[in-house]
Amino acid sequence: MLGDVVELSVVVRDLEAAVERFTRLFGLTVHRRGESKEFGFKNAILPTGIGHIELLEPTDPTKAVGRFLARHGEGVYLVGFEVQDIPAGVAQLRARGARVDHPRPDIAWVHPRDAHGVFVELRTRERYDG
């Protein structure tokens, strides 16, 4: 069911400092930046080949990313796997007892309590050429 790891999301205290470090140390470049008021974070996407690293800085301490930083400090928050048939993957996981949020046809999330504290994301592979 799970394919390649195509996303690794890392929660950071200071997005600008993290971008500087990841670009300087690892030679990565920023593909795009964004902000989600709904989920309470600013982010930067840094392609790594077949996938990307997403750096997340909380903007709202009451939302999940902010709570993660308060409880755990900086670190890996989410691992995203490429899945060819996301609805079928969701059905399999739910049949096995996992709590899965499936808000759109192209993405789903397994609750961290069912994956030892990390969000697992089922997703399609992103393109970085445009």
Report Rg.
Answer: 15 Å
- Biggest sheet: strand arrangement: 2-3-4-1-5-8-7-6
Overall tally of structural domains: 1
The second-level CATH architecture is Roll
Report how far apart the termini are: 28 Å
Could you say which overall geometry the principal axes of the C-alpha atoms support? globular
Q: Percent of residues in helical segments?
A: 10-25%
Largest sheet: 8 strands, mixed
- Report the order of strands and helices: EHEEEHEHEEE
| Total strand segments | 8
According to CATH, the homologous superfamily is 2,3-Dihydroxybiphenyl 1,2-Dioxygenase, domain 1
Total of DSSP H or I helical runs spanning 4+ residues = 3
| Structural category | alpha+beta
CATH classification, class level: Alpha Beta
What is the average per-residue confidence, as pLDDT, rounded to a whole number?
95
CATH topology: 2,3-Dihydroxybiphenyl 1,2-Dioxygenase, domain 1
Which stretches are low in confidence, meaning pLDDT under 50 for 5 or more residues running? none
Percentage beta strand: 35-45%
